[in-house]
Amino acid sequence: MALQLSTCFFSHGFIGLNNNNNENNVNSYNKNVNLRLLFLPSRRLLPASCKMQQRNLSSHHKRQQGKKPPSVRIPTSAKLQPNSEEESDPENSVLNSVDMEHIGNHETTCKDDADTRVDVKHIDEENLGTLSVSAIDTNRDMEHTDEQIMDSLTLPAVTKALAINRDGGEQLSGVQLEDLIGMIKNAERNILLLNQARVHALEDLHKILSEKETLQGEINILEMRLTEADAQIKVACQEKIHVELLEDQLEKLRNELIHRGGSGKSELELSQNQNKISNEEVLLARDGRVHSLSKEVDSLKTENLALKNDIQALKSMLSNVKNTDERMITLENERSFLQSSLKELESKLSVSQEDSSNISTLKVECKDLWAKVENLQLLLDKATKQADQAILVLQQNQDLRKKVDKLEESLEEANVFKVSSEKMQQYNELMQQKMKLLEERLQKSDQEIHSYVQLYQESVKEFQDTLDSLIEESKKRASNEPVDDMPWEFWSRLLLTIDGWVLEKKISNTDAKLLRELVWKRDQHICDAYLACKEKNESEAVSTFLRLTSSPASPGLYVVHIAAEMAPVAKVGGLGDVVTGLSKALQKKGHLVEIILPKYDCMQYNRVRDLRALDVTVESYFDGKLFQNKVWVGTVEGLPVYFIEPHHPNKFFWRGQYYGEHDDFKRFSFFSRAALELLLQAGKKPDIIHCHDWQTAFVAPLYWDLYAPKGLNSARICFTCHNFEYQGTASATELASCGLDVPQLNRPDRMQDNSAHDRVNPVKGAIVFSNIVTTVSPTYAQEVRTAEGGRGLHSTLNFHSKKFMGILNGIDTDAWNPTTDIFLKVQYSANELQGKAENKAAMRRHLGLLSADDQQPLVGCITRLVPQKGVHLIRHAIYRTLEMGGQFVLLGSSPVAHIQVNLYCCFVYAKANDGKEDLINKREFEGIANQFQNHEHIRLILKYDESLSHYIYAASDMFIIPSIFEPCGLTQMIAMRYGSVPIARKTGGLNDSVFDVDDDTIPHQFRNGFTFTTPDEQGVNGAFERAFNLYKNNQKSWQQLVRNDMNIDFSWDSSASQYEELYAKSVARARAAAIHT
């Protein structure tokens, strides 16, 4: 209790002193207000004298509150000001408004309790009055004594706020110390009031106990009398019952006497009756006695009721006495608490007296400090005055300087004007001479102009005649020249319309061929006809087009791509990019290009324009039956595309993924035959059928064995293998599903797999049956002809080496263009590299990397996390970059089965290794990603994000591609397109596109990156050290290297030209052979 009381008063006084702990002070203050209310004695436990003392105390504080408003705490940051002599006594500012409100509330509660309390009737009212008066006098004496004590303890007003560093560094001002002393005095005053209340309560208790003993004696006597009255009541009740019986008998006798009165009776009966009457009279006399007894019983009953009421009152008084005992126990506990709190307050008072002695010394120091402050203030005032004067002087000097400048300018103008006036005089003289000469010449020129006008009129007539003739000639030529202002999408839509009419048997194959030739030439007539038929019905449009069926031969080649992917509608890997990029490049060169794809349920239909189903079905053979196929047409990136939707019960292409099914061999062999069936039934005569990877490698043997004999014999077959790692081998018996002759094809010189005689290899079959075989880079073409790189097909490739070559892929320079890339924060070019630096800073902020050092190199990596890509070298590059003071960003998709490009061989590889290596790679990089999750220089994103990939290409300074083998690779080309210098291993397409800056055997203009040969950590370290050294120590050379990389042409134009040459030679040989036969 003492600890709580001391905490209450001291925390109330110290609240607000420390600005660093405001929240704790507010909570402490709220608790202290509640605690203060606990120390006021309860009205239920105090006699009337205590009530009056409490009212006096409350009114006394109310008067103090009315005299002085609540004190305001002085913050520690307030300016020091001397205290005035009129400063109020701290005693008057002890209780604030919160204290008064709680005391008022407590008094109201006490009044309510007093109204409901049951007062003891035996307490002498005069004694109560005497006790109340004495209590009031004592209270006044105590107040007077407390005021004297307070006056003696009150400190003189301090002129400045004093800092007292005690118990944890709290600082107290002098005013707050006086508040503390005032609160201690009030606490002592409250304690004295509580002691007085305790004395009065003890006196009242003694009186109540004595009255209790007297009442107990009276109760005992009343109980004895009550027992006696009960016994008498019982006896009276018995007698009353007996009297009632006698009265009944008497009544019966009287009735008998009346009944017998008229008849003669014998003397004996009369005598007997007289005896009975005498007995009855005796009984009647006795009955009167009973009457008196009943009255006495009634009086005893009333007295008994009165006694019961008295007993009930005594019991209630006894319960009140018991309650008084409990209250006395509570008062005794409070007395012990008050004694302990008094001791605590005495100790605090002693400490405060010691502090007051320290305050006296501090006041002296404060006065000295204040004097110094005043001196400093005087010095500051002088300095400010001098500064103001200096500013005035400076302003005056500036005004003078402006005036001098104006004077100098006016002087210069005057000098110039003087010189110019002299020149003007000379100029006027010359002008007068020239005017005379001009007048003479004007007269001559008038004559010449007149003659020239006549000649001009004649020439205008001749020019008009010539212009009219030229316009007529241009109109004639325009009708025969190709139309260049229509997009390729327009011509693709026109071709799809013509093919739809052929399939629907609305035009003949011959007419369709002639109309296609007009489209190939981009003829003006067919363009005008198509535009004119927009508002006509289909029959009128067909008749309009049939009028145009007389045209010369086609100027270009007709190429059909049959593939499993096409970017962006069905893209898994680089295959989709090649199909789209090569087709667009060939189309720009004037060739007719069409693509046939499976209609996957998971492809991006929003990237297909004008998608519609043809009103015709194509039947194809499979597993001994004919199945219908629905044909859809649309344009993708301006290219005409056919989508085949098989109506097969196994729903081959409605699986939710492109690859990864157990029956992939059947799925794609079915599609390959359905694609050829579409060409046959549509009457198409392509020059080149280009198939890609093992999924459509079935086209080559199907074409020569089944469809060339049926009339689809105009084409040459070109097969491109994008990665010999995936060959799609399967049991030879599965080849029969698509209608091929298994015994004829399961031979060593045809489709039989080189490592298993009971299996067939679609890639080998395409190599054998195709007229042209290509892969995606020259170096990779050499690597796959070795036993290590050929994956079992090196002997077949060497045997067919004359038709096998490597052509480096290109990239879509429209999609990957930093000057127009919508995914970048800032577009930039090779001539304006500032945008690249801004993208680097923006990506650092986006990924949460440290961006304090703009010159810190950033290494990027975008790859699939498979062993082929050198994942162990990527891991080493991360740590090596960190050691060399760089930053590293990885965007890598984990090796999940359903996103592999060629899954069957992936399964074979996984089975050979139990799938453990891919799983380890994935888990390993997840662990590294978690390790560097919040690192300021490393960030790993284990998913593919198209927009983020553009961002990383643009932001990175270097790009790491440490592949174990790489057929072509597009990331190094895209990186250089965005000015990111590649660090690559010399293998496959990387060796054909990245040339080391320190290689003297390479012409200087072709050097564009850093390479290493051995696939180990030493090779990576060497390339990294050279790259970082050039970046940090020779920024000028680095910037020139970046510009050179961005200016390299990696478009499909050169690659398409090589394919065009291969196509043309193959078609020419076929036509020459046809002529000879």
Characterise the protein shown here.
With 1077 residues, this protein is an alpha/beta fold. Among the domains are: 215-238 and 311-378; 506-548, no CATH class; 558-806, Glycogen Phosphorylase B (Rossmann fold, 3-Layer(aba) Sandwich), CATH 3.40.50; 833-904 and 921-1050, Glycogen Phosphorylase B (Rossmann fold). Helix content is 60%, strand content 9%. It contains 28 helices and 17 strands. The strands form 3 sheets. A 9-stranded mixed beta sheet has the order 3-4-5-2-1-6-7-10-11, with helices on both faces. Strand 16 (981-985), helix 25 and strand 17 (1010-1012) form a beta-alpha-beta unit. The longest helix has 214 residues, at 267-480. It starts with a helix and ends with a helix. The relative contact order is 0.04. Mean pLDDT is 76; it is low at 1-172, 550-554 and 895-920.
Describe what is shown at a glance.
This protein is an alpha/beta fold and 1077 residues long. The chain is built from 28 helices and 17 strands. The protein has a nine-stranded mixed sheet, sandwiched between helices. A six-stranded parallel sheet has the order 14-13-12-15-16-17, with helices on both faces. A two-stranded antiparallel ribbon has the order 8-9.
